[in-house]
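Worked example (supplementary).
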Amino acid sequence: MTRQVEAHHYCGHQNEEMRQCLIYDSPEANARLIGLEYIVSENLFMTLPDEEKRLWHSHEYEVKSGLLVMPGIPGPIERQDLELVCKSYGKVYHFWQVDKGDSLPLGLPQLMMAFTRDGQVNNELVQGCGKRLGVDYEKERKNREYMRGPEHGIHPLANGGGKGLKTVLREVDLPNDQPPPSATRVFV
Amino acid sequence: MASTDKSPGPTPAKGNEPPPGQSMSVGQHMIDKGAMMLQSLKPVKQFKQHLCSFAIYSHDMSRQIETHHYCTRLNQDFLQCAVYDSDDSNARLLGVEYIISDRIFEDLPDEEKKLWHSHAYEVKSGLLISPRVPEIVAMAELENLAKSYGKFWCTWQADRGDRLPLGAPALMMSPQGVSPGLARPDLVHHRDAKYHVDSDSYKASRLEIPEPEMISPFADYWKQHAKGFAIDIVDTDMKRTAPFP
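After joint prediction of all chains, the assembly is encoded as:
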């Protein structure tokens, strides 16, 4: 939880209930593509196998706290979309750990989670963002008070089921029914 | 818990059809149109190239996919690409590939190099094409790509029949000139027919393209080591500064 990043999502719809997003570290032309997110409606989320549900996170808090904003979009229109996002679940992988100062996308994909309650987010991060984007988070919170999260409540398995999750690399033998790679070995 | 090489549990979201879900409502279309007009969308407007090629799952090299890369060049040595399963507007976002020059690649630690693949073969064999771009126009970029290395994480195994992106990411490898890295002829024919090209015919025009003098034995890891890679997602302690969730 101590490692947090600002993320700029560029999303498109596969249909009304599913979106896919590219995640960048800034809204500028030279922004780095650091990851991706898939967003599904509550209905689609409920069809996922239980093991899969743990990899997804809820959006209710992010939306209602004002942390999630759609820059440049007038409030009333923004809120129309956010009402839907509020009930949705997302699955995010980041491939480039820019907060570590990595100048290249090194290592393994990282499964990301979202903020789920007050006290988790790093305030400096938020203040910085708020200033740059011109967001008054307190005002947004009030404007979004009326919104409702998932109809069935946040699923207990979402958000990692409350546990941390990490990715680990494993070498696998190539299946036997495949011919072995070229027998020439290079000795260096 | 979740692994690249384990089939996800039963779910209705299986099959070859598009993702489940209701069709876009008029309201949603209008929000999208509004957003497109009001927001700058700069990062995604930087995609300057469309490349079509093939990729192979590193943990199961019998599984190959046609890929559509939409690439942005951040500098002379670096490209970042969003990878889709087609060039249609309803294409599925399969993952992300990063492409770096051999100069940058050489400086990576060996453990990192294992996750990368070379591009020389797929460029020179004609498997990688720049759809609808004449060879002579594409040549400069092809020369860059032939000397480059890529790292491609696939987060949606649509070829497995996943109608939604399930499970852990998969590390992808590139086609090579030896089994099991040889591109499946049926996939190549299907792609060639779509774009009215003949991949084979590019071999001649691309013969002279320079490739890296030596491809690191850590890249294309399966070639020297007969092993692939899978990702496991496992429980871990989360460092918390507040209760979660």
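Two points are worth noting when inspecting this output. Chain B touches chain A through 91 residues (CB under 8 Å). The mean pLDDT of chain B is 94.
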